[in-house]
Specification:
Strand 3 and strand 4 form a beta hairpin. It is built from no helices and 7 strands. The N and C termini lie far apart (49 Å). The strands form 2 sheets. A 4-stranded antiparallel β-sheet has the order 1-6-3-4, with no helix packed on it. By secondary structure, the protein is mostly beta strands.
């Protein structure tokens, strides 16, 4: 499985929990093994593949949304 090329609105971290994944960014592919933590800034195009069934935890940081004050 995998995720096609995309970008996140906020910074992300990818923590590989099991097996390994292939994380592609900036024309390079990085093979990340279990226990690896990878961080990426907002707006950078990247993709992920898991040809051997690796599992990862993805965290996306989002800015707090401004709420309108009640009248």
């Amino acid at each position: 499985g995998g995720l096609p090329a995309h970008k996140a609105e906020g910074p992300i971290t990818v923590h590989v929990l099991e097996g390994e994944i292939e994380f592609s960014v900036g024309g390079s592919t990085h093979v990340l093994a279990a226990g690896t933590l990878f961080a990426l800034d907002a707006g950078i195009v990247h993709s992920v593949a898991s040809p051997r069934g690796g599992m990862f935890l993805l965290t996306v940081v989002q800015k707090e949304r401004e709420s309108k004050a009640s009248p």
